[in-house]
Amino acid sequence: MDTCAQLVILTLAAGTPLVFAALGELVVEKAGVLNLGVEGMMLTGAVASFIVTADTHSPWLGVGAGALAGAALSLVFAVIALTLLANQVATGLALSLFGVGLSAFVGRGYISVVIEGIKPLSIPGLSDAAIVGRLLFGHNPMVYLSLALFVAVQWFLHRTRTGLVLRAVGESPASAHAIGHRVIALRYAAVLFGGACAGLGGAYMAVAYTPSWAEGMTAGRGWIALALLVFATWKPWRVLAGAYLFGGVTLAQFQAQAAGVAIPSQLLAMLPYVATIVVLAIISRDATTIRLNAPASLGRPFHPE
Amino acid sequence: MSAAAIPPEVRMRPRLALRGITKAYPGVVANDRIDLDVLPGEIHAVLGENGAGKSTLMKIIYGVVKPDAGTMQWEGQAVRIASPAQARRLGLGMVFQHFSLFETLTVAENIALALDAAEAGSGLPAKIRDVSRRYGLTLDPARLVHAMSVGERQRVEIVRCLLQAPRVLIMDEPTSVLTPQAVLRLFDTLRRLADEGCSILYISHKLDEIRALCHRATVLRAGRVTGECDPRRETAAALARMMIGAELPHPRHRPPVAGAPALVVDGLDLRPDDPFGTTLRSVSLTLRAGEIVGIAGVSGNGQRELLAALSGERRVARRNAVVLCGTAAGRLGAAQRRSLGLAFVPEERLGRGAVPEMSLADNALLTARHRGLVSHGLIRADAARSRAAEIIASWNVKTAGPEAAARSLSGGNLQKFIVGREILQGPRVLIAAQPTWGVDVGASAQIRQALIDLRDAGVAVLVVSEELEELIETCDRLAVIAQGRLSPARPVAETNAEEIGLLMAGSAATPERTAAARRP
Questions:
Q1: Is the ipTM of this structure higher than 0.95?
Q2: Is B86 helix (H, G, I), strand (E, B) or coil?
Q3: Which residues 256-295 on chain A approach chain B with CB closer than 8 angstroms?
């Protein structure tokens, strides 16, 4: 029974970086902006949080620094793509490459540094009680933060007026502008939010999940987050499910490697990526769902008048 | 007329006054020193053909576009309207020609977006039902817009404006998407609004409608005011003279000499690729050599799907569902159908009819590969250029020359070029979709005449259009498409606008009627 609870906890832990990054990018794309720089923003967030944690010994300060670093990088994207109207795909790709390089450069001196990261909750009497106690109270605090983010994004998009305006801007910025909404300002806000979330995803990996710093430690999760959105047809709960599927298969492939299964480890390491995309691609083939949820203006620059 | 109910001194002072409004775009002055007065409670027409500057002027009033010069007065006070939000706060409402609705949102969400946060609370659906009942505009607030017909979408736009209790309502070409019956219903609503004191700015190029509805008309031509009048006292010919500076041209007609069937569609069923599209249901049509058949209908009733199935962009499962010049063509692609003698003028000029960035010479080449412009896979550039020059000369296309990019041409000139290119193929069947949409009167007349001449030369011509008058004027037989079904084609002489309008609204099972039946 105990291993069962452990498996759930580890699955959520492995899927959480994707939850952060993909939910942030979900808001960005719902506003009609395609920021392909998620991987770069995650790594920048990871290195910033690790450095701040190592220097201040406060992992929560580090998490804040990670979010800020992600947002700062996304601001660069916003200025180039939203104000200067550069091609969003090219700008996003450049941002990813830049973020990868920048994080590697800044983090050179921290590769074998050991830090005290954020530990899973341990509330006496609850977290160690029965299986239910462990499932409810045994996760890393940042996992709860990601779940709160999920609820907040879902609520924001479908229950608030600003969320409604955001979806409208994503479908038709010209119409939204014509009825008097501030398209560019809203897109800026969405891009910054997405950057902060990607930064949080990176920070989670650096100060809670591993905790350590290694070059390129997000290992393509930023790209998977982008793919996840498409195959989850921009629905938050499907993003969550896809992220945990990814986490579960990641876990399974670690177990298989540990058990010495006679499959090359490189092939096993591919599994989470392949499984996530195949499963989501199969469940998201309904064209009407895609049309209703995909932001129609995605990636197209908008200039008022 | 309840206009008498309003005291004369209030009626005299314009609610909205424009003085010297000027707006220039690169290469064209859209508005040149325009003066306009709108009185309380009047229906004021702004009349002009496509490109006269009507839409630009309305966008300036509504704060979407900033004028280069000129002043505006609202209730006697000088104002500068910087944004649509400010225009709405003043009491201006606008129903756009191309709707500003969001397809993936519901009616209530669409309306909430245009209101202030305070008004868009939880009581909104009830308010929507209330206003829609009061003005006879049936609407279900919970429906998603993408599933609605164009007429219903227009109702959403109107209700959205009415909820803000506007004092000036701008209607930009509101009837271009409506059936003749729906137009009458819209007029009732507008008259009721005007009686309540709301001013209406009614933008149109349709003379009969303006004469039936409006109290006053300001006529624009090439960005300038060319006249102001009471349209109820003017003849259509007099209005046309003010609008285009000449009499309305009428095409020459000869009795049709229909020959052998050139295009036969037999029981065509087709599911659309686009989930928001229309399913075609057993569409049948026989088009003979030497006749023009028109397909009328409100857009979004299957025209796009039918045209794709006819042009070959979409292949159909059954080979015999489309027979082109005696060959079962259902499974053939567009190029194969073209080599059988099909020519096609699509609705979207830029992007489908022509490649915007490419030169006219290259565009001429694209549909004429087998006519000496290509040898051994290499382009014969001089042949393509002279082909383009030939089209430009014979159609009097205004352009810098064969090397000009398609994008640089005005709508009318590009359309002339595309029609000319297709006719030069020497087709046996020509399909034209919305051939004169957004085209000025002169070019429209030229294109219609070319279609008629083509018919007289023995070509089978199919015209798909939303402009009923155009179809009645040019076609020999008319069919109506509604909800993916095509009515039998009937000789134009044996039918009339009312009858066609009823067919356009669909059979007994139209959404409008079921909605009306559900009402207590």
A1: no
A2: helix
A3: 287-288, 290-293
